[in-house]
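Archive entry. Fields below.
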Amino acid sequence: MNLESLYREHWRSVLATTVRLTGDFDLSEEGVQDAFVAALEQWPRDGTPGNPYAWLVSTARHRVLDQLRRRTRILQKQVEIDRLAELETPEVDLSETAMVDDQLRLIFTCCHPALAVEAQVALTLRTVCGLTTEEIARCFLTPVATMAQRLVRVKRKIRDAGLPFAMPPRDRLAERLDGVMLVVYLVFTEGYAATSGQLWIRRQLCEEAIRLGRLLCELMPRHPELRALVALMLLHDSRRVARMGPGEEIVTLEAQDRTLWDQRRIAEGVPLLDTALREGANGEYALQAAIAALHARAARAEDTDWAQIARLYDALLQKRPSPVVELNRAAAIAMAEGSARGLALLDALEAKGDLAGYHLLPAAKADLLRREGRWREAAEAYRHAIALVTNDPERRFLTRRLEEVDAKGNG
Amino acid sequence: MEYLLLIYDNEADFAKMTEAEHAAMHADFGSFTQGIQKSGNFRAGKQLQPVATATTVRVREGKKVTTDGPFAETREQLGGFYLIEAKNLDEALAIAENCPGARLGSIEVRPVVPAPSN
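PREDICTED_STRUCTURE:
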């Protein structure tokens, strides 16, 4: 037995229930940690208990109550004494249903809109996924001390501002679930965006996000948009290996070796999306997943149904207007109807100024100019994009393209 | 738990309102106050005079320094407050959301430190 597999299996549910039973996030985290250490000592000697979850919860709960008792003795506050008496009732619900509810409560509390989004992400990774503070800090390229402080601050707010450890009321559920899905997707995109060399950490984030999405699907089976989100992540993730070239440069979808696509991910993602769509998912994740599925279905780049993709971007733009979606839509229309039309759309987008400073705008323009054989203009646009790009794999890709069009233009 | 709802708005916008708009706003605040009195959430609530009437006092090395005006110049100014009792932050936020001040300006929701008992 090792701590890691024990953690993996039980951390979230044990922590979630302990928080419910004690009402204290911070002490629960410590108590659960202690319970795992105790398990590691005792189980190999005395045998694994019949219900490990119940054993861990009751051990953690006792540790927390001990802490609270100690604190109460020092403070002598009537409120705390009353609360403690309330917590010490022997009847605790450790049923399967309660366990599921606790996990949902934990997720919804971590993703509470009163917390800053980056704090939601960090807290979710810490408490729901069980990542250590060091791991989270590494994922976000933040010093450990900064991340530790962020986590302390957010837990303090949960306690002192009186955030409820509860599911949102029915009339707020949809809106709150949107917030939860955003956190899951942010974890995924953080892992997917190749901004540094530490690829294995990033892979871990993608895995965590997918795992979290799957858990939510299990806990909330009547929300098809969740299934669409998982499908989207699986479909993107299927291309993880193919999108990075041997020199750690980004490989465009068009140039990717499609035999490198993870067919297991696709075989899971496509039917999952179909189910979600059949059940009425029509939000932004469903639309993005539908686009990703069209790419996944094309055996060769030239088989891609760009007209359909452009229509999906239209729908996405209606649902969530954003200049980045407009940019993607323009690129899809260029592929469906020709570069000239795409360039006109990009010029219009540039004139609006919403994407000033965003490297993908000149990069998209450069690509269309390159397709048109307008080498010098393409080179100029690539130079512009390179001046704006911030991550290395994309810079390497753009630089290679610049060299190509420069050679053509001078040749 | 107790929460203080600090109502911030732009006094300049306020000054531009017509008499009818003022009356409507007062009526809105009136019915909001009544609502939270009836539900048992209300503890206190007042509207403040504009920041032009504010005086700031500091005592430094035993010496009182009085300055005309608010503590800090801000884009939106503190215009009033409610002290409420709520079960948790969610309930406090739901009450803040229904306060007319949320539509006109912004409401900062601050938990109150519980008084030491005994």
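CURATOR_NOTE: Residues 2-111 of chain B form a domain with the Alpha-Beta Plaits fold (CATH 3.30.70.1060).
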